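Page 42, continued from yesterday. The earlier attempt failed because a stray header line got pasted into the input along with the sequence. Redoing it now with the clean sequence only.
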Amino acid sequence: MSARRTPLQFDVVVVGGGSGGIAAALGAAACGAKVALIEAYGFLGGTATVSGVQAYCGFHTRGARPQQVVAGVGQQALDALQALGHDVTPRQQSSGNWIILLDPERLKRAMDGLVQAAGVTPLLHCRVVDVQESAGRIESLLCADPQGMFEVRARQFVDATGNANLAALAWPQRMRPRRQAATLTARLSGLDPSSSYDRDDLRRAALDYEDRTGAPLARRNGGYFVPLPWSDACWAMMVDVELADCSSQSLSHAEMQARAIAHDYLQSLRRCVPGFGAAQLDVTGPALGVRATQHIASQRDAVLEDLVHARRHDDGIARSGWPGELHPHAGVTEYRWIAGDDWFHIPYGALQTDDDGNCWLAGSSIGADDAAFGSVRVMGCAFATGHAAGIAAALSPQGRRAPLRAVQQTLIEQGALI
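This time it went through. C-alpha cells are written below.
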C-alpha cells in the first residue's frame, strides 16, 4: 500500500456514516476512544439522506401498543431532531408497523451536531479504496478524497457501509451473495390536498404505465406514497429494480433505468390518480437505495427462528422489533412476523466476523440469514447494532475481542435497551 500524505492514526475507525456508523462512532467516543467516521458523501445520515428513505423503521414494535426497542444513540438522534423542531412521533402504517417520518435536511444538521459534540473526526467526501490486511486483521485503510490518497490506521475498525463493503475489500474470497431488490425513492410535490385516492387508482396508474411503455411496473400495486406533514410533498417508493452487485456497471444501469421509470410513471400518476394532475418530481434518491448484494459470515448470525419465536439470548446486545421485510425480486415484498408483535435479541456474535480479527459489523452489514436480515437491516435497528459495535471496538484490547459482559454493561450505562 502506498500513500502520499501523512497517515492518520485513531483508536477506532468507522466506515459508513449512516445510522449504524453514527451510532458506532458515538458509542466508541463515549468510551474515550479517538474515533474517525469515514463517509463517501458530503453529509451523514446514510439511507435516510443518501437514498431518500424518509422514515426511521424499527424504533418500535408492531401492533396496537408499540413498544420502543431502540434507545441509546438512537434516542440521541431523535432528541437532536426534536431540538430542531422536528416531530418524531411514531405513525402507524397499514401494515401495522410504526415509522418516524424524516426531513433529510434537518437530519443532516442533527447528525453533524451529534458527531461534533462527541469529538468524533468526520472524514466526509472520503472513500476507502484499499485495505492493508494481515492474518485476518485490518492494519490500515487507503483512502481517497478530492485532494488525493492517504492512509488511515487504527486498532479496531467498524464496517457500517450497509453492504459489507469494507469486509469485501479486505476478504473478497469470504463474501457471499445476498440478493435484494433495490429501490429508487422520490419526493413528489404539487399534489392537491383536497383530493383523495385509493389503491385502485394507483393500480390503474400502474396498468397505464404498462400500456404506454410495454413494460410492467415492478410495483404493480402502484407504489407507496406518504404525505410529509412539514411540506406539500409526499415521499414515494414506486420504483424497484434488480441489482446484481455494486459494481459501477451494475449501479449505473440500475440508477439510469430507475430514473427513466420514475419520470415515465409520473405521467401515469398524473393521468390516473385524483390530486396528482399537477404533480412534480422534485428529487429522486439522490442515490439508489441498495438493500444488499453481498454479506460475510459472522460468528453467530441472527436467524429466522430467533425472529418468529421472539427469542431472547444471554448474549443479546440489541433488540429488533421490525418484522422480516424481504424484497427477493423487484416489486415483491414478503413479511416474516415476529411472534406476538414482540422483539427478538441480536446476538453479540452477529457483530463479529467469523474469525478473531479487529473488524466489527454494524447496521445491515451484521451477520443474519436472509429472513432475519429483513428485520435487522432497518435504520432503527442499525442504531442499536452500531452502538454495540462501536462500544465493542473501543473496549477491545489489542489482539482480543471485548468481553460480552463489559459490552452489555457499557451499553446499559449509555442508555441502550438490550
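Notes: The chain has eleven helices and 20 strands.
Reminder to self: strip header lines before submitting.
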